[in-house]
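Sorry to interrupt, but I need a hand with the structure work. I would like you to pick a protein and set down its sequence and fold. Please put the record directly below this note.
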Amino acid sequence: MSLDADTVKKLCAGITNVKMQKFLCYLAILGNRSRAAQAVPVSTTTTWYWRRDDEQFRARYDDAMKIAAELHENEMFRRSSEGVLEPDYQGGKLVGTIRKYSDTLLIFALKGAMPEKYADRQKVEHSGAVDVVQRLRAARERALGRKTQ
């Protein structure tokens, strides 16, 4: 997904306040309420009131966050599969660029796309009774140098 003219029109449909419209666009790009508010500029408290008091704005806010998530996901895939060019210095001089890929982002992409195969698996089992309060009291008494029963 990209933030093209049609997407912006849909995102701002029914919103007449220009600052609200700007905020929604920045939110869709940045995915961060504080940074979007700073870019408008408007206080984050104001954006909180807008969201609380205006049902239409609240719906558009949620749409903007979905757009941001998709944009960030696209960037994650790009960096993991296409890589990014980084400067290559030798002897303190720029001699070219090196394409670097992100294995970490690829791992996250696979975990999200195929959790049944790549998700972390932890199994914790417990049997028997444990009286945590009693054990904590006993540990406290030992720490204070008192005998426990």
Remarks:
- The mean pLDDT is 89.
- The first helix runs from residue 5 to 12.
